[in-house]
Sequence to fold (874 residues):
Amino acid sequence: MATAATGTVALALSDVSKRFGQVVALRAGSLTVTTGSIHALVGENGAGKSTMVKIIAGLYRPDSGSYELFGEPVDFRTTADAKDAGIAVIYQEPTLFPDLSVTENIFMGRQPRSRFGSIDRKAMDTEARALFARLGVAIDPERPADGLSIADQQIIEIAKAISLDARVLIMDEPTAALSGIEVDRLMTIARALRDEGRALVFISHRFDEVFSLCDTITVMRDGSYVSTDAVADVTVDDIVRRLVGRDVEDLYPKQDAQIGDVVLEIEGLTRAGVFHDVDLQVRRGEIVGLAGLVGAGRSEIMQAAFGVDPYDSGTVRVAGKAVPAGDPAAAIRLGLALVPEDRRKHGLVLDASIARNITMAIRRRLSRAGILSSGAENATARDWASRLEVKAATLDALAGTLSGGNQQKVVLAKWLSTAPDVLIVDEPTRGIDVGTKAEVHRLLSALAGEGMGIVMISSELPEVLGMADRVVVVHEGRITAELSREQATPEAVMFAATNTEGASA
Amino acid sequence: MTSLIDPSDTSTPSRGRTYRDHQRPLWQRVLLSRDVAVWAALVVVYLYASATVPFFDRPITITYLLLDVAPILLIALPMTLVIITGEIDLSVASTVALASVSFGVLYDKGTPVVLAAVAALLVGVVCGAFNGFLVTVVGLPSLAVTIGTLALYRGIAVGLLGTTAVTDFPEAWTDWARGRIGESDIPSIMIVFAVLAVLFIVLLHFTAFGRGIFAIGLNEGAARFSGIRVERTKLVLFMLTGVVSAMAGIYYTLRYGSARGDNANGMELQVIAAVLLGGVSIFGGRGALPGVIAGVLLIGAIGSALRLADQTADVINIVTGLLLVVSVVGSSVLGWIGSRRRRGAPEPNSTTPQADPDGPVSNREREDR
Fold:
């Protein structure tokens, strides 16, 4: 094995930047990883970690900055280049070929050949068994990849990386979907790889794992490098402060609203394996922020309450009336509205006009004696488009031709036209420009002021802290903390979102 | 402050943004539509054939043309709705045959003709409901489901009657099916078609249900999130297709005075060809019934003209086949050009902040980031 001695610099990025059009995904990323080390890379969602990983993996080319591998400057054009140079990335959810065997997956594209040019299955099998023996795991190399747990799939990716003799392994949130025992096994393997002198980068939101596994930690925020320290020299508190550290108050002026009666009442909502025993109350005039990590189950909870997703047990009430399960049309009638996270897939019909999109949820209310005319649709659409200041010239322009922010306004117009009592907004400002973002925040605040109950799911901590009257934190499908506006500090929310122990339920 | 959510509060003039209804003037929207293009093609073919093909301009030609295409016209109505949702029903011709055979067998066994007809319609409803059940409840793709039921319904139809046929239907009924409206050249069945055409046009283009059909075809996820009952809509449409196919089956039986298991063999392809020729997108979400009606008549007129010009059925098939390919390829190419042209404008899927010179967004806010 051709690994360098422990302690030499394996991977060094400095002041790497990447922009997409006007959006800066990575401002100044720096990361230095030595051999024989497990290096933690932490940051909020959107801090630029993923962009950095994609640059390391050869998926993106940086716009500026330097990227060196074992002292040599590199400029990867494809992921294959990076792989050849000894870099392997283990993703949170590996993509294996489900119908092929474990062995075939490991050797995909570089199967050993026998003398006659056919694939040497025996050699392949022997090597696969040797790999698993070395990793100390019991996976049958002959079984199909389909049906393997995510943990086992990651092991196969690691086996693949070792068989390629990868010198640098990047693990992008590998533990997010793993159980406790599986995490332990992965950590054992990671330590073994470290002791072989490989360089590992470990990305995780879970500080307990970071602190028990890693020796060095680099923090990123807003697309920039913040700090690198030996893990022994810092505390969780230090790290959390560095992760969040920005001024929240100025960006999100929140008006005070009269808090009224309970308007949305969710009790014991459970969907096996997704969320459990969720209780949530929202009052008129109140903005409740639903915080948590991506994949914690926040969207799933609210989509189930709205009726587009199923649930196993529990009740949902709007203004005292029970909302039937699995029936969005009834939920809308009872006063629920949901602005979904994925605007293009669920929020809008991009190939339909602005007018049709705005009136889509009130088609029946606009009908007279069963007949729906374009005139009625246009009149309503014109009213709502102007209230929300949608920037378009005509009502028959296709929604897909609008900018992200204006698309979001069309979605909001569609839901506000239903005159809801409760508005659920899922990542309301994702992918929209800063100006429109501020408009959306003002709008939400104004709506609460008029007595609407608002549930805001957001992965942007400043948005949650700046807008919410009350913050409810979801961790792995359970509510782990409920914090008043005063209690909701970045540290408290991050603790509840990352490890359940630190949360006061 | 003006209320944002109170629908009765229309005091928003201060916001000052106005919107026109349409990007293009009325004449452009009407004349440059696919529907008008198909109608124009129909007129051209009709005039050309009248001038060059002997006997084509006789009134009797129109009568027979309409009698021949009547089942296709009927089935094309619900088929259009099904295809706009992004689904397809290939079992319609087999449903025609099964309804025809059920009608014949029941009548042969002594059931009153009216009851036999009602029973045949019920058979159509059941056929459609079974398709709809497999597609919406079981969740199978409609292409696979209806290829299966195409064989299944046809198989039952042939099995019920074998190689025999029921032929002696009451003359009053067969005469009506072959007859014309008063002294005109228009067949009586066109009354049924006209009524259904109006109903379907209203349903598709002027109701909330119809808006749902288009939304489902364009983006099923967004339709579901907007409270459109996707499964129920599709189920209803498959059942409508079944019952209208059965209606066509009864007409077919009476017109030819014969209930047979191989009635209307291959008609599903003629129906789908006409619907696509009429401007309905096979991917769903786009199309209009007036164009579809012109599409059916166009295929019928071309067939009729070629027959009168002594061309064989093979030639007719080749011509209609080519026409279909050209029309589908043509609209794809036009769509591609359209999307290329749109790419010049702000890219719809970009998350790039848009510089809005007329917007109230200050640069300060933008720099805050």
